Amino acid sequence: MSDAYVGGCACGAVRYEIAGDPIFQNDCQCRHCQQRSGTGHGSYLTFPNRKAVTLKGIAAQWDIAGDSGNLKRHAFCPTCGAPVYLTFAAMPDFFTIHAASLDDPGRYRPQVVTYHARAHAWDHLDPALPAFDKMPPSP
After folding, report:
1. Strands (E), the chain
2. Per residue in 61-94, pLDDT tens?
3. Distance between alpha carbon 71 and the CA centroid of its chain, in Å?
4. Cα separation of 84 and 81, whole Å?
5. N or C terminus: fewer CB in 10 A for the chain?
6. Neighbouring residues of 91: CB distance < 8 A, sequence distance ≥ 6
7. Does pTM surpass 0.90?
8. Residue 82 to residues 32, 59, 74: CA-CA distances in angstroms?
9. Pick from 100, 127, 130, 102: which is nearest to 33 by CA?
10. Whole-angstrom Cα distance, residue 122 to residue 139?
11. How many CB atoms lie within 10 A of CB 133?
């Protein structure tokens, strides 16, 4: 096991510490991620065990249905507005953080690009990454 992944919002009111390693790291170019990030994509690390997550502070939350129809819950700081994490009703054990919320964002290592079909021409991501028009199939 590696060092814990630690981070939080811009003002420090919402913090997390996650034991273990992510199972999926992706840049997502779906329209929801574009709107939420204010740019061409969102960057995420997904962890398999929500029980390995320690949270401090109280995040505000809002829900939206993904393309699959499954509910995604977005958590952000009610003070500074920074997005911090996501959870998924269909995958309750998973815990996903925004890469920029890490204290050390250099730990983020994208593996794939998702929803590439919705990419803007000006949003240049690593061309060596496999790109999927939607979410890739589960292994």
Report:
1. 5-8, 15-18, 24-28, 42-47, 53-56, 60-65, 71-76, 83-88, 91-98, 112-114
2. 999 988 778 899 999 999 999 999 999 999 999 9
3. 15
4. 9
5. C
6. none
7. yes
8. 15, 10, 11
9. 100
10. 31
11. 13
